Amino acid sequence: MNITVKQLHGGTLGDVRLITANGAPFVWKRQKQWERRGDPGSWRREYDLYASDFGSLFTDGLRWPECYHAEINEAEDETQLWMEYIDGVSGDALTVEMFERAALELGRFQGRLYAERPAVPQSLTNLSQVECAKNVYLHYRSWNELYDDIRAGGCEIPKHLCQMLIDLDENADEVWARIEKLPVVLCHRDFWVTNIFHTDDGIRLIDWDTAGWGYLGEDMASLIADEADAEYMAEYYQTCVPAYYKGFSEYADVSQITDDCVWELILVKFGYRLAEWVKFAETPEQKTLHLKTLQKIYDMKEIRL
User: Fold this and answer.
1) 179, 230, 185: which is closest to 211 by C-alpha?
2) pTM of the predicted model, to two decimals?
3) Other residues' Cβ atoms within 10 Å of the Cβ of residue 103
4) Contact assessment for residue 286 and residue 277, using Cβ atoms and an 8 Å cutoff
5) Which strands, in side-by-side order, build the sheet including 24-32?
6) Which of 144, 198, 237, 263 could cross-link with 98 by S-S, CB 3.0 to 4.6 Å?
């Protein structure tokens, strides 16, 4: 048997390899236990989801990789998955049109589940909770070093961008009150370019370890702002949010939603994170990129969809 092994990008304490046996490729993923802040079950979530009927929720338009075999070693706190290899366009190669298709298909997926209320998601005990995004924001806000730095006169982040974060903090209760009026949907919660594969047959999503309950539009915030090409962020915003709502509205009425809060979700999910990356950037190029992304978020506030 002719076997080749190629190391792929893995997550925290994850080992992911592309294995090709006699010309047939598959992905092997081993995940060790680790503690994600506020989400202790995430390390084994993909195993739990593959062991359930979660896969029945998907369609060809949007689905995850098929899992051929799954194992968990409770003694070693380790999972192993043998999965389908997805051959598609991903990462920086995704075009605006592909972003739009991903947004549309995710909207359809979430809208259908929201409208039909299938039993499977309600029966799962290891999904991330709706408060996750809020708790991450509150954690960043309680980080005194970063909080104080943004308010210091000598902060290297331009004053108007610092003020954007300060304004968020000062109005956080009102912002979250608006967000919390949105429908709660089943989110991927790591919906960014390296986890999205565009194929001729549809969108394929990998890495479901953060999946759980979240607010309508939360995944759009990740698609638009999580290490996407800053040059195209405004275009992603103008294109993807309407496509997402179009897909969702095929199954559920969204006419009563007059405030989509996607811009606010971008800011609460990535504002402080980008400030952290600016502060601790390892190269001038990284710092420039993160500052540029913050500026793009600032500019997007004036865009009307």
Assistant:
1) 185
2) 0.95
3) 28
4) yes
5) 3-8, 14-21, 24-32, 78-84, 67-73
6) 198
